[in-house]
Design goal:
Length: 166
């Protein structure tokens, strides 16, 4: 009798890590051609943004660029807390409105926001490299990090287009 091979819906952790880190790198640091155009990663986009530009918004109905960066950093840190707790943790409370309060920044405050974003990004890289327990919530959390950051990168790039051409 011929036995059928058992089908498994699994992937190797190393494969997930590799794919995730490639997308994370492209979203934050350096375009590799997966989802972005050359020179448009988050850190590349923010590299020449002044505190003055970061204190502006594209319209009265959207947050400033500083608020976008602050919110993105806050989101990364909240998701990391959930991931490090083993998945969704109802005891971790997020104050989403807090990060949207930035209406203006000094050059020093802008530098601090950018540094905080770099620190959060490094923490995500470290976390995915050292995570040993994997479940749907953890994988989903990592995927949300790339998707959410890419969304805000688009918002920032759109806002810069408006801000710099008005």
């Amino acid at each position: 009798m011929v036995q059928q091979a058992q089908h498994q819906d699994t992937i190797a952790v190393a494969d997930f890590r590799s794919a995730f880190l490639a997308l994370l790198n492209e979203t934050f640091e350096s375009v590799e051609g997966h989802i972005l155009d050359p020179g448009t990663s988050l850190f590349e986009t923010l590299a020449d943004v002044s505190a003055e530009d970061a204190s502006r918004s594209a319209s009265p109905h959207v947050g400033t660029l500083a608020a976008q960066v602050d919110h993105t950093t806050y989101y990364l840190n909240i998701l990391l807390q959930h991931i490090q707790a083993g998945g969704s943790d109802p005891s971790i409370k997020a104050d989403w409105g807090r990060a949207w309060q930035r209406t203006s920044v000094t050059p020093e405050e802008w530098a601090e926001l950018l540094q905080n974003l770099h620190v959060a990004h490094a923490a995500v890289r470290e976390a995915v490299s050292t995570t040993t327990t994997w479940n749907e919530d953890i994988i989903g959390g990592y995927l949300c990090i790339v998707a959410h950051t890419a969304y805000h990168l688009g918002e920032i790039r759109q806002a810069l287009g408006v801000i710099r051409h008005n």
